[in-house]
Amino acid sequence: MASGSSRYGLILFTVYLLFYGGFVVINAFAPDSMEKTLLSGLNVAIVYGFALIIGAVVLSAIYGVLCGDVSRTSGDKESQP
Amino acid sequence: MIYESSWQAVAIFFLFVGFTLGFSFWLGRKAKSSEGYFAAHGQIPWFVNGIAFAGDYLSAASFLGICGMIAFYGYDGFLYSIGYLAGWIVALFVVAEPMKRLGKFTFADALDSQFNSRGIKLAAGISTLVVSIFYLIPQMVGAGALVTPLLGFEQWVGVVMVGTVVIMIVVTAGMVSTTWVQFLKGGLLVVFSAILTWMILDRGLEVADGGADGHRFVSLTVANSDFTNDDGIIGTLQKTEVLPAEGGWEKAKESFVRLKNSDTSAVSVWLARRASDQPDADWLLSEAQTLTKTSDGKKLVNGQVKGTKKGEPELHPVGYLTELPGGLQKTGPLSAIDFFRTLQQSKVVLWRNEKLTHPDGSETTVYFPKVTPGGQVLRPGEHPTFRGIRSEKFTDKINFLSLMLALFCGTASLPHILIRYYTVKDAGSARKSTIVGIASIGFFYVLTLYLGLGAMTSGELDVSDENMSAPLLAKGMNTWLFAAISAIAFTTVLGTVSGLILAAAGAVTHDLLSSVLKWKMSDTEKVRVAKISSVFVGAIAIVLGILFQKMNPTFLVGWAFSVAASANLPSLVMILFWPRVTKQGIVAAIVVGMVSSLTWVLLSGESYSRVYGLDAADAIVPFSQPGILTIPLGFLTLVIVSLLTPPAGKKTPQE
To answer: Which residue of B has its CA nearest to A27?
Structure first.
C-alpha cells in the first residue's frame, strides 16, 4: 500500500489537516481573533480563509508534480487496472 | 417579491436547456452497454472529467445557498466554501487512486473487492441510495428557487420541471452524456461567475437608503414622552396613533411598534430602539416590512393584498450601505482587496425577520433592518448555524466543530463524486482529474465571497428568499446576464441531479438487484432496470423537493455530508490502510454510521423547528450536527467488529 504516491498523499494530507484544523479551532474557541486586522486592512478571517482555498489548490498541484516523478521512475505501475 | 419574466430570459433559458437535452440525447445514443451507461466506458479524458467534477460539485447548494447565506449574513456562508473545498483534499490524497484501482462501477464494488460479500453490497448499496436521496433534496429545492424569478412560475412547478427533465436525461443517456453536460456547465458557471465578480468590483460600493425599486426606508426619532402619554397619540407626528401590542404582537421578541394613520387607517410596523441608555432617551423607529398569511391563504404585504404586477403592493428589495469610510457616497471601481477593505469600514443594513402568530390563525413575518458594521459582516458568527461559536455553551462550539468535520470528511464519501472515478481510464487520470477539479472549484469558491457580498450591497435582495440572492444580483446588472446565469445554474442543478440519480440507480441495479438478490440480468436488461430505478428515484426527489422548499440548500447539504461521511468514510479509509478489516466490520460500520447520523439529524433542534414546526428547545439531542460523534463511532464499530470476527473470507489481496 505504501507506494510513492500514497506516501506523498499522506504527508500532504497531514499538512492540510493541521492548517484546516487550526482555522476551525481558532473559530470555535477564539472567534474574536478572526476580526483582527492582519494584512493591508484585511482581517484574519479573510486572509486565513483565502489561504485555505489557495493552499488546497497549491498542495494538489505539488502532489501532481510529485506523483508525476513517481510514475516515471517506477515504470508507470499505476496504469494497470 | 413579484417576479416578472422577461422574454430574453425565457428565450435564453429554453435555448440553453434545449441544447443541453439535445446534446445529451445525441451522446446517449452510443451508450447501450452497462459499462457505457454507468462508467462511460472509462474513456472520459481526465481534463474533461476534472471540470465535470466541478459541474457535479458546484450545485445549487454552492451557487444559490452559499451566495444567499453570504448576502444575508456575511462571512458565514464562506465557511461552507472553505469546508467543501477542504473535503477535496481527502478525496485527492486518500481516496482517489485506490477507489479507481479497486472498483468497477460503484462504491460498493471498491469496498467489496477483497471479500465478495453480499452483506457489504447490501449495506453499501443502501447507504448510497440514502445519501443520494438526502443530497437530492437541496438540489430540487434550489431548482425551484431558480425557476420562480426567471419564468414566474410557482416553486413546485420548477421542482417538477427539473425532475422530469432529469429523468429524461438519465433514461436516454447515462454517464457519457452526464459527464459532457457537466463539463460544459461546470466550465460556464465558473466563467460567468468570474464575469459577475468583475462587474461587482467595477461597480464599487455606494451609500443608499433603499433598494433598487426606489423605495426609501424611513427612520423616525420619537420623544419618550410620546409613547408614555395616555392617549396613545404621537404629538410630533401628525394624526398618528400607536396601536397596543396585542393579538400576537405582545409575544414579539424584538420591540415592534405599530402606527396607525388616523386618516387612511393604514397600519405600518416599525422597529423601535432607544437612542441611548438614558431612561428617558428618545426612540429611534426604523421602517419594517410585513408579510402576512391569513388563515384563508391570502397574502398581505404591509397590510395590503399582495400584488401580481409591478407597482402593486410587494416587499421592497433591500441590500444597501448607510455609510462608507471617510463620508464617501460612492467609491467607483475597487480592486479585489480594496473591496473588502472598504466594506470592513462601512455600515451595511442587513434584514432580519421574526414570525408572529395571531389568535385568528394568521401568521405575520416582520422583516426589519439591522445596521451592521462591516467588520462584523466580514467575520464568522452571524448566521444562526454559526452563532454558537460566540456562545459560552460548549455544545454550541461542538456543533460547529462537528459541521466543519462533516464537510471535511463528506466530499470523499459522496456517491456521485465517487462514481466519477470510474469514468477515466486509470489511477493516474483519476488523480489528474481531481487536481483539475480542485483548481476550478477553488477558484469558484473564492468568487463566492465576492458574489455574496456583491448581492448584499446590490439593492436587489428579496427579504423573504435568501436563495434568490445570486440570480437577483445578476438581474440587477443586466437581464441577459441574469438569463445566462440562471440557465447555467438551472442546468447545473440538472447535471448534479442526474449524477445523483445515476449513482442511486447504479446502486439499486448493480449492488442490490444483481449482487444481493442474484437477479440474472443480461447487459441490456441491466441498463433497462437501471433506467426504471432512475424514474423511481427521480419521483421521490420531486416529492421531497416540494416538501422541503423553504430550507436553505446549503444547510440540507450539510446534513447529507454528515450522513455520507459517517456511513461511508470509515470503511473506505480502513480498507485502504488496515489489513485486518473483515466483512462483518465493514457492514457494521456502514449500518451504524448511517443509522446513528440519520437518527441524530432527525431528532435535532434544527429538524424540530424547520421541518416539524416544533420548538427547537424540546429536541432530544444536544446539538444538530452529528459528525463529530458518528464519524468516530463508525471507525470504532469497524475496528471492534473486525477484531471480534475471524479475518476469513479474504481472497487475493490487491496490493
So the answer is: B389
Grid coordinates in use for A4?
510513492
Which chain B residues are Cβ-neighbours of A49 within 8 angstroms?
75, 78-79, 81-82, 449
Contacts of A63 in chain B (CB under 8 A): 92-93, 431, 435
A31/B390 Cβ within 8 A: yes
**Angle between helix B479-506 and B7-28 (nearest 10):** 30
Q: Is B282 contained in some domain?
A: yes
Calculate how close chain B gets to A4, using CA atoms only, in Å: 12
What is the domain range of residue A66?
4-74
Rounded to an integer, what distance in angstroms lies between the CA atom of residue B478 and that of residue B458?
12
Q: How far apart are CA B209 and CA B402, in angstroms?
A: 40
CB contact under 8 A, B427 and A9: no
Q: What's the complex ipTM?
A: 0.86
| Mean pLDDT, 10 residues at a time, chain B of 655 residues | 67 82 73 63 77 81 84 92 90 79 74 79 85 83 74 77 80 73 85 93 89 84 70 62 82 86 83 82 88 85 79 85 87 90 91 89 90 90 83 84 90 80 77 89 94 92 84 84 80 78 80 73 75 85 81 73 89 84 90 92 80 75 87 93 77 44
End position of a domain, from candidates B520, B550, B580 = B550
Selected for mutation to probe chain B from A17, A23, A33, A46 (highest B CB count within 10 Å) is A46
Whole-model pTM: value is: 0.86
Strands (DSSP E) along A27-71, which ranges? 37-39, 42-43
